[in-house]
Amino acid sequence: MWAIIGIVLKIGVVVGLMQGTVAYLILVERKVAAYAQDRIGPNRAGRHLTLPFGIKINLPFGLLQPIADGAKMVLKEDVVPTYVDKPLYILAPMIAIIAATLGFAVVPFGPVGPGQVMQFQIAPGVDIGIVYVFAIGSLAVYGVVLAGYASNNKYSFLGGLRSSAQLISYEVPLGMSILGMVLLAGSLDLGKIMAWQDQHVWGIVAQPIGFLLFLVSGFAETNRLPFDLPESEQELVGGFHTEYSAMKFGMFFLGEYMHVITVSYLTVILFLGGWDFPGLSVEQTGLLSAILKVLVTAGKVSFMIFLIMWIRWTLPRFRYDQLMDLAWKSLVPLALVNLVATAGIIQLIRG
Amino acid sequence: MNANHPDLKRMTPPKLSLGDRLYVPQVIAGLAVTARHMAGVVFGDSAITVQYPEDQHIPSPNYRGVHRLNKDESGRVKCVACMLCSTACPAHCIDIVGTTAPETELWGDREKYPASFVIDELRCIFCGMCEEACPVEAIELTGLYDLTGLSREQMIFDKTKLLSVFDLTKDAEPMRYGSPPSRPTSSTELVRDSI
Fold this sequence. Notes:
Number of strands of chain A: 2
Radius of gyration of chain B: 26 Å
Strand content of chain B: 5-15%
Helix content of chain A: 55-70%
Largest interface: A-B, 14 and 16 residues
Number of domains of chain A: 1
Shape of chain B: elongated
CATH architecture of the largest domain in chain B: 2-Layer Sandwich
Order of helices and strands of chain B: HHEHEEHEEHH
Structural class of chain B: alpha+beta
CATH topology of the largest domain in chain B: Alpha-Beta Plaits
Number of helices of chain A: 12
Largest sheet of chain A: 2 strands, antiparallel
Number of helices of chain B: 6
Order of helices and strands of chain A: HEEHHHHHHHHHHH
Structural class of chain A: mainly alpha
Number of strands of chain B: 5
Strand order of the largest sheet of chain B: 2-3-5
Radius of gyration of chain A: 21 Å
Oligomer: heterodimer
Strand order of the largest sheet of chain A: 1-2
């Protein structure tokens, strides 16, 4: 009984934190965009603020911008065009956000394993771990594809088509890029992969090619630039979400940013050692070490999210044929070679 | 000209080096560029943003904003109602009603003057052709860019309003000519004079 309440509490806290983080990630994204383009970015919301009891404060960096953005999303008129396939049209953003939320269930955001104060994972001890994340992650494509199809609009449809082709292509190198780490750690459980990295080396050292492949495919999976072909503001006027407005549009973005968080967590867990940091080891089980580990992971994840945004404002979008070439002619063969080489070396060393 | 014409120059796409085809070195170079810009804004002072209502943007001297009708030294409107500007106007937004100048001391040297001079600022495309057409430098485009109004009627500027724009901007943007050129000049001569 208490266990169930504990899990429900954990889900509430984690999902709530995720949504809040996403709101602020949008502000961070806008700030990064502005800085990269020699601008200042949103800096008005929160200035000259009068709180109850006449307290006046001056929040810097437009810190209340997410509230303004959120209020705008909720209060805007929710236009549903008459020519859309209504059930699917309404279902699509739901799928996008549900898939993105579910994917986080097995992601450990702190230390997990027997003897720890607390399992920092919504569903601890799932043996298939990473496979579950990928399975749910590929469900998210239904959100985009159905949105494109249900919108009954040529641009949206093209966006949906591109999305399906892109995600199917990049699932392959994404899956294969992590197999090297899985072979090394001998487990699909993300907690065990982190423990292995603590005892040996970080995944980025052991599997540099795997890291690169995962990063590139991860970008494609999250529909972020340089792989945001389903969206393509310039050619497809927004692609799959052309016909969406108000909170339905917002839900797609919520889903996208949750995906970014999940992919960043996975990258950190698989290749950057997770909570591993000099002075922290898998043997420590105290509360203080647990908090430190959560913070270390969050720090690394913040850097990954920043990197993803940084790359978005640096690289132009791939052309469709270049995208397919990159996946099938470069990433897949490279992933195969990497996998065979890793397996061979492990076999030689372990005899 | 057919596809095999000898004058046609064939272009070949540049050969990419191995580093280019690997993407990674080029991506890192690109990241360095954006990092420099971000650092410039965060740690330095390289942001080009103008905090608009507090700070006002100063447009370049040849910016084409709201029109003004210039006055001469004795405060009369310089316009001689020759209709060249409204003829040149591609948007047909200038409407001039010219009359014979009164035979008083003040208007003695002038034949005509505009009884009414109306510009529909909503129709105007701010191309500056009126300014170029004017032989007496009477109509000019100023640097005022925040042209707003609450109704369409407010955006139709009559002579009084256009003259008041001159009063507003005459110090910031002095006329290029104190008085109209005494003899008809070609445009090339005008340019030489002003330099």
